[in-house]
Each structure stands twice: as structure tokens, then as C-alpha cells.
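Dear V.,

Thank you for sending over the compound details. I've combined the ligand you provided, calcium ion, with the protein sequence from our construct and run the structure prediction for the complex. I'm sharing the raw inputs here so there's no ambiguity about protonation or stereochemistry in the SMILES, which I know was a concern on your side last time.
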Amino acid sequence: MRARLRRVPEVSAPAYNGPMPSPGYARDCATARWILLGASAAGLLVSCGFQTYGVDGAASSGTATTASAGGGGGTGGTSTSTSSSTGTTDGAGGAGGAGAGGSGGAPPVCGDGVLQPPEACEDGNADLGDGCSGCMIEKPFTCTGEPSTCTPIPPQVVAVANIGMGITDSANHYDGSIGTMDCATVVLVDQGFPSIQWISLTVGIDHPYVGDLVLKLVSPQGTVSTMMNRPGLDEPTDKYDESNGHNAKIEAAYPVVFNDGEANDAETMGNSGGVVCKDDQRCSYAPNPGSGPGLALADFKGESPAGSWKVCLADGDDNDVGKLQSATLEVLAW
Ligand SMILES: [Ca+2]
Ligand SMILES: [Ca+2]
Ligand SMILES: [Ca+2]
Ligand SMILES: [Ca+2]
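Below is the predicted structure of the protein with calcium ion bound, written out as C-alpha cells.
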């Protein structure tokens, strides 16, 4: 019996490039995009560089072949060996075959439970979305053992409460430097995941005039990214300025989240007065550095998350004094 492997058109299921997958998504290793699994994704493209595989364990050399996630039919090593031998070959597939041949046996069969180079994992199937897809490790998963056991890499969350850090409020004090800001430290321990893929910052601040505030995040490597800068004021430079921003309160009991891609621009924070988040139900913001350094939280992508982060605040106009009460970092790295 021969395993089924068929060509299918490229998937049109919802896909996005963001770093934080939701349940039910899997990485398409051909495009590095997250693709929603499900009925509409039957036939998901699985091209992992050396071979492509069907869900039934069929292997076919080459990167141009599409394996059907909905495939059925044959099972077992014997049938997949037949399929493998009939697959078309391109450059990448040929390289994979050569590596397997060097180990002195049959070419690797994905889904047979035997971990054989160049397979990075082998969980006994070629199914998608379980951490090991086509015998390549899906991100964000780690896989160990033979057959492989795969577990999702969880976001690392560190929350610091009761900071009570006063924010210096005096004329001409803030000059744009970190040294003229007040900073709280948030420590992330090394969990062995070296490269930040996504990060968000949540702060609880008590201040009667949010338009005075500048907030920056500093990584252990020293990268500075400005989360917000005097919301409501188009400040000419990143320093003390007696012009007014948005006249709204911010309360630590209503923390605000900074996360790339949020619909609310941080420059609009407090533009409807009242209490930020509490009264306008806008509690999540995309960073806007204004005249400050950085672009977004993606500034930290690729850095190691481990070490001491600094959450820094400045008050860019005198009168109206506040405190940083809490800070939370949430990081997904692999
Ligand atoms: Ca195998
Ligand atoms: Ca699998
Ligand atoms: Ca501004
Ligand atoms: Ca002030």
C-alpha cells in the first residue's frame, strides 16, 4: 500500500507574522508565518528545507511539494519508503538525502519514531501544531527524546509590585537621558531561551497629569525604547518642556499595557480626560516614542531577555507629581 501525498494549492487560511501564536495556530516553516489550523487549512504547506511530509508519514524529497494535512491512507514504514523513493528532488531535497545516505541506511522517514538526521525532532507522526511538524521543531516549542516529546515555550512573566518610586518633578531636570529619569529594575532570570521574539510592558502609575510623563524601557544590553513621550504634546525635543500634554489622570489601580500592534497609539493616552483606562476603557497601547529613542517593543527582538531591565519615567513639566507603583514584563523568547 502506498501512502498518499498530493499537491494542494497554497493555503489561504488566516495568517500573521506576529510573534505570539494563539492556540490553534502552527508555524508554516516555509513562510515563517503562523497559520490557523483547521478545516480550511487542510493541505497546509510544510516545506522545512530538506523534505516535506504528509500527515500519514509519507516523505517526499524537495521543498516544492506540498503535503496534505488532510491526507489519509497508507501507514507504516514500508509504504513510506516507497513514496520516498518516488518523490521529485530539487537542490534542497538532494542535500537532505545525501546526509541520510551518509549514515549508512535508508533515508529518514518522518513519523516512524526514529530520530535520524536531518530530523530535528521525531514525535512518531508528521502532524502539524503539536510542536514537531514534518520532523522540524515548531516555534515556540522545545522537543526532546526519541520519540520526541514537545512542550510549548511559555512567556516569561515578571511582575514587580509596591515599587512606590517617586518621579522627579522639577524645572529643567529632565534632559532626555536615562540619568535624568527615575528607573525601577525588573530582573528576568536566564531560562535558556536566548532570543526575544515578543515583549510587552505593563505599568501601574499614579499621576494627576499623564501628559507630563515620559516612559522608557531599557534592556540588559542597554537598548532604550521609548514607550510614550508627553502624550498630547508634540514635544520638539526629548526633554523638559513647559507646554502641556493631555490633561488626564492615570491611576496604578488601572495599569496600562504597552504592546506592539495595539490599536491605541500611546500619544493619544488621556485625550478624553478623566482617568486613563478606568474612564475610557483604553488600557492597551502601541508605543509611540515621539522625540525619544526607539520605535517599538520590537526594538528588543533578538536580544537575550536575561538580566536587569529598567523601567524609567520622567516628568517633563513641573507641577503635578506622581509615582511608579508596579511594572510587569512579559517576554516570549526561544
Ligand atoms: Ca524518523
Ligand atoms: Ca507532530
Ligand atoms: Ca508627545
Ligand atoms: Ca509634573
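A first observation: The radius of gyration is 26 Å.

Warm regards,
I. M.
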